[in-house]
Structure formats: C-alpha cells, structure tokens
Amino acid sequence: MGSLRIRATLILGLSCPALMLAAELEPALITFPTPKRITIPKSQALVKIDGELNEPVWNKAARLTPFLRNKSGEPEREHTEVRLWYDDEALYLGWLCKDSDIQATFTNRDSKFWEEEVAECFITPKDLTRYFELQWNPLGSVFDAIITNQLNAKGFSTNFDGDWSYTAKEMKSAVKLVGTVNNSDSKDDFWQVEVRLPFRDLGQAPPKPMDVWRANFYRFNRAKGQPVEELSWSPTRLPSFHEPSRFGYIKFGYVSR
Description:
Helix content is 7%, strand content 37%. It is mainly beta. Strands 1, 3, 6, 7, 8, 9, 12, 13 and 14 form a 9-stranded mixed β-sheet that branches. A 5-stranded antiparallel β-sheet has the order 2-4-5-11-10.
C-alpha cells in the first residue's frame, strides 16, 4: 500500500502543477459550467485498429470538441477532437490532436506521460469515487490504472489513490503521427490515436441504449517557448483533472443509420 500511495502522490503532483487539492481552493466560490453531455451511436462496423481512423464509421461517430483549458476554460492553442462510438463488445475512441511540436520519449507502460504529451480518458460506469484512467502518448505507449477518489459532501476531491497494477488486457490501440518527434526546429502536423476498449476490461457488461456513464477526456499539449496546455472536454475549472463530479455525461445511443 505504501508504494501505491507514493505513486498516487506522483500522479497528483504531476497532473496538478499548482500542487493543490481541490478542497484547498474553496470551490464553492467558483462558478462552474454544467458538465458536458454527448450521445454516442452504436454500430456493428468492423475496423482495423491501425491509427488511420479512415473507416466510414468514424465519420458517424460522436465528436467531442472543442477542448478548453481545464482551469480557465479558455480556448485551446491547437485543435483537439475525440470521436466515440460503441458496439456489443467495446467502446471505440479516436483522438485527433493537431500538434506543431510533438514531444514524447516514454515507451514503457505506465510511465509518467503527463510530463510530456498525452491524451487521457477517465471513465466510470457507476460510482464517481472509482474510475479508470487510460492514457496514450504519441509513441503509442499506454498508461492504465484504477483511481479511488475520496469526495467531500459537495462532491469535490479531497484525496485519491491510484492502483497501477491494473491492466486493460484486451484493449488495443495504435497511433499515427505526421511530424518529427522531439525536434522543435521542424514544424509537425498532428498525431492521432485509435482505441478499442472492451467493456470486459472495465468489468462491465455491454451498456444498453440510453444507459449513461460519466467520463472526461484530457490532453497535455506542449511546444517550445509556449506554456503547457492542460486541456479538457468538460473542464473541471480546478487545477486537478481528478474531479469526477465535473466529468461529462456519456449516453449510449441506438444503432446509427
């Protein structure tokens, strides 16, 4: 347990540069926008997980955009978009990240990707105090953990622990990028991620149409000479990404036509 607490502290410190817990910021004094909502279509399409996102089903997927700066709600510097759909077995995610200066060196699973550039998904089918944290970096490396978050009476995080022993064993992902990684003198174009996340990896039966889960999607974007952008689909408006009461609502829809 000691090592898990140390690791969770690292997650908190690196994901929250201000090094503050939400409870220390008197969130009751902040005006929060309503968490975002999206309905994602169901499809029986077949896709190859290769990072291309070129099958027709991706054009019918729900599109989560724009991303905003997580704490301030200000516009992002470079465009970010997530596309979502599902079938009887899995959730499918497509990340599209415009990026003029792609930065990534980590290749080992469960590395500290947030110190560079990364795309992140926090998702829970039920309890906001327990959710899955999944990350993908431009080199195709993966982070997966289960987060247990203690919330106060108003729903704000007071502390959380991460179980890094969890592995999404059946999840598949692939990355495509156009650019030269770690060369700030060469202007890059984008990187994108294609993910198949089986519901079994989340310990859940396939959702039924009209079921609602909670989720949020984040991105760390960096560029030489620019401040780090901590972006989110449904901004928490607090320093930490780990504010599950601020997660968006994901409704599972019917089969798309």
